[in-house]
Amino acid sequence: MQYAGIAAALALFFYGGFYTQGVMMAKKTGDVSGLQAVKKKTEKTIIKSNEDLSTRITNVYKFFNEKKFVEEINDIIVDLKAGDEFELSLKDASGTLIKFILVKVYQSHEGLQCTNIAFKEKTLLSRSDLGTNLNLSLCKKEDRYELVSINLSK
């Protein structure tokens, strides 16, 4: 699936007059792969920033290789506890190695073992970006953790 297509659809949605400070993308449940916007009612607020949200979403996928991330995280996640900091090979738009923090481990509503991982610092998604907070949720399916959501906020 092309993430650029998802980003383009969201860009049109936000261009139509809906401004927000964050969006959460979640993997579809079932056999269908891909991401979908989480359906949650939010307050409409106008923000002034150098880049709009759709651009930030697109820029996440310019540097974020989901398959490589999941492969690397599965090698070390069993040794991590809440509060632990770690690094993988992921770099931001300026080429800086990204540091992560394991925020918490929990059981999902479906009974899956899940974990929240945050980027330690605001991540530069482009050269003009002032920084974006990114949080990832992973859940264990068939003895491997899979990315289930990406949460972006300013």
Structure description:
It is a single chain. The chain has 154 residues and is α+β, with helices and mostly antiparallel strands. It has one domain (3-153). The protein has helices at residues 3-15, 53-63, 66-76, and strands spanning 22-27, 35-37, 85-91, 97-107, 113-119, 133-141, 144-153.
Helix content: 10-25%
List the helices and strands in order: HEEHHEEEEE
- Net shape: globular
From the alpha-carbon coordinates, what is the Rg to the nearest angstrom?
Answer: 16 Å
User: What's the tally of helices?
Assistant: 3
Given helix and strand content, the structural type is alpha+beta
Question: Can you give the mean pLDDT?
Answer: 76
Q: How far apart are the termini?
A: 26 Å
Number of domains: 1
Per DSSP, what share of the residues sits in E-state strands of 2 or more residues?
Answer: 25-35%
**What is the number of E strands?**
7
Give the strand order, joined by hyphens, for the main sheet: 2-1-7-6-5-4-3
Let me know the largest β-sheet.
7 strands, antiparallel
Low-confidence regions: 39-51
Compact overview of the structure:
It is built from three helices and seven strands. The protein is α+β, with helices and mostly antiparallel strands and 154 residues long.
